[in-house]
Amino acid sequence: MTLLSVIDVHTFYGPVQALHNVSLHVEAGEIVTLIGANGAGKSTLLMTVCANPRPRTGRIVYDGRDIALMQMHRIARMGLAHVPEGRRIFRDMSGAENLALGGRFHARAKFETLRDRMLTRLPRLGERLHQAGGTLSGGEQQMLAIARALMGSPRLLLLDEPSLGLAPILIRQVFNLIREIAHKDGVTVLLVEQNAAAALALADRGYVLVNGRITLTGTGQELLHDPQVRSAYLEGH
Fold it and tell me: Which domain holds residue 65?
């Protein structure tokens, strides 16, 4: 079942075009990664799916409904969650308060079940639950940002550069968490990631974005061994 389809999307920031005729699809249960150089339009594509900015032309179909003109809060209520680049947790609020915002649409019993599941999976976060978000380490903030998104029980999780600025051991923890989210929880993942080797090794399928255009697509393993991809994004990186 196709959960997300981006169809012939053109996105602009004022007069500047950021995405050119972009099309991709994500099947339910997949991990799909989007790789490309800085400024290629990867973050713009995720934000366009969330209606900020809206596409100038084209369609974005999620779970059978065109959401391109839908309000952002309605999209979130449909089970689509976005963890933006830079985490963007509420730094002056505690970890517990950040999680409460993520699960604000749930009844109390479901909220508590989800919170307990998050803290069991991420015990370090549980130890820091009552600290202000801004006092957490970079890795802890990233885990909190992902946990906050998961508190909404999403069907589709958009992750933008989750390994950015993290030490190698924390990068492994983040990618292990993404694998668990997809394979154990059944959450579909669309992942933007500068660490192309790790992302492609994890992904079922991938797309390469160059200057706002999709130039290559294939399985994660196909792209991992593609000479163009290796030359541009893997060798020496």
Answer: 2-79+155-234
Q: Which residues contact 145 (CB under 8 A, 6 or more apart)?
A: 83, 87, 88, 89
pLDDT for residue 236: 54
**How far apart (Å, rounded) are the C-alpha atoms in residues 167 and 169?**
6
Regarding whether 170 and 69 lie in a shared domain, the answer is yes
Cα–Cα distance for residue pair 84/95, rounded to 1 Å: 17
Number of domains in the chain: 2
The tens digit of pLDDT for each residue in 141-192 reads 988 999 999 999 999 999 999 998 888 888 898 899 999 999 999 999 999 9
Residue with tokens 């989210």: 181
- Reported as type and span, the H/E element at residue 75 is helix 72-77
Separation of alpha carbons 97 and 118, rounded Å: 14
pTM beyond 0.70:
yes
Of the chain, the end-to-end C-alpha distance in Å amounts to 35
Number of helices (H) and strands (E) in the chain: give both, helices first: 10, 10
